[in-house]
Amino acid sequence: MNKGAFFDRDGVLNYEIGDYIKQFQDFKILPHVYNNLKKLYDNGYLIFVITNQGGIAKKQYSKKTLNEMHDFLQQECIKHGFEFTEMYFCPHHPETSNCLCRKPGSIMVEKAIAKYNINKEKSFMVGDKERDVTCANDAGIRGYLIEANEDFIDIVNKELN
Ligand SMILES: [Mg+2]
Ligand SMILES: [Zn+2]
To answer: How far is the CA of 58 from the centre of ligand 2 (A)?
Structure first.
């Protein structure tokens, strides 16, 4: 079985700007991400993004723009010697339609767990909102709450011990 490290996106992997990240120029990767995720990758973790992107349902930005951001994130990480196994996003928003995938729902994490044969006891998720922790716990993995844009190296080290 595999170990999984799951990350919320905005405020955890890239700067939270207090609004949807609507344009590529506003997608800025947090500098500590490379070191932290590389450490997990080198220790055998599969790494995932789990993100709500309700701005797509609200037509604030397109899936194409989102894909540009995610392609960029993946390419930058590959330059640093690691990669994401998969990036899951929920494009829905309750203002336009309900869905099962939006966090705090745990389906995005559960999908990854099933698809990649993840050992829940060895897996965790980091997020900057309470709904991230709820999502993690409902999927059966540990959830850690950080401040937006905060370095989470302590969590990484704790999980590696
Ligand atoms: Mg966030
Ligand atoms: Zn959804």
So the answer is: 12
